[in-house]
Amino acid sequence: MRLRNKPWAQKLVQEHPEAILNQPDPEKKIDWKSRFDDFSKPLAIEIGSGKGQFITTLAKNHPEMNFIGIELQTTAAGMILRTKLEEGIDNLQLMCADAANIAMFLPENSADIIYLNFSDPWPKTRHEKRRLTYKSFLREYQTVLKDDGHLEFKTDNQGLFEYSLVSMNNYGMKFDFLSLDLHHNKSEIAQNNVETEYEHKFAAKGNPIYCLHASFK
């Protein structure tokens, strides 16, 4: 969902290059070690961070980890950046960029978890290649994730969930967790769930939240 343009967000992004990479050149290597106090900590990446409720909550709750939030919209990235700065979240870096190039922005085998939360479903068949669970994106994730890393995916869109199951299965991924109604699931994973803004809104309307965890090994 595209947000209304907020001029302050663009200005904030430009003023804080130490906290956010704004449309980085995929041909230039990013020195991630210089952007974190300790880049050896486990790394989690969220692709499509929206307004940032999910990624900022996780980063605050898990100081023993590093987090990278990737968001294409500058306005949304600016909102996350404002929260990061106001709350002093030092273990979170942001990047305003297209996730289609994620393997060019990050070292191979560097991430422990990749989160895909409420991605645009791109329902038209001609837009299949834009879906974040299309095989070309899965290839990028596989490159970035460690051998024992995994992908966590949530959506309220049944069609996208079904498509993603097929796409990941065809790619040879292994499913470690599946739920057709996460908020009524009794598992430990469900009990420890951190909601996104959209998730809270959709669940309040009674919509089921679909969830899966999958790995490449």
Automatic annotation (TrEMBL):
Gene3D superfamilies: Vaccinia Virus protein VP39. Keywords: Methyltransferase, S-adenosyl-L-methionine, Transferase, tRNA processing. It comes from the Bacteria. Its EC number is 2.1.1.33. Residues 126-131 are annotated as: Interaction with RNA. S-adenosyl-L-methionine binds at residues 46, 71, 98, 120. It holds the Pfam family Methyltransf_4. GO terms for cellular component: tRNA methyltransferase complex. One of its GO terms (molecular function) is tRNA (guanine(46)-N7)-methyltransferase activity. It catalyses: guanosine(46) in tRNA + S-adenosyl-L-methionine = N(7)-methylguanosine(46) in tRNA + S-adenosyl-L-homocysteine. Catalyzes the formation of N(7)-methylguanine at position 46 (m7G46) in tRNA. Belongs to the class I-like SAM-binding methyltransferase superfamily. TrmB family. PANTHER family: 3-DEOXY-D-MANNO-OCTULOSONIC-ACID TRANSFERASE/TRNA GUANINE-N 7 - -METHYLTRANSFERASE (PTHR23417), PENTACOTRIPEPTIDE-REPEAT REGION OF PRORP DOMAIN-CONTAINING PROTEIN (PTHR23417:SF14). HAMAP family: tRNA_methyltr_TrmB. This is tRNA (guanine-N(7)-)-methyltransferase. The gene is trmB.
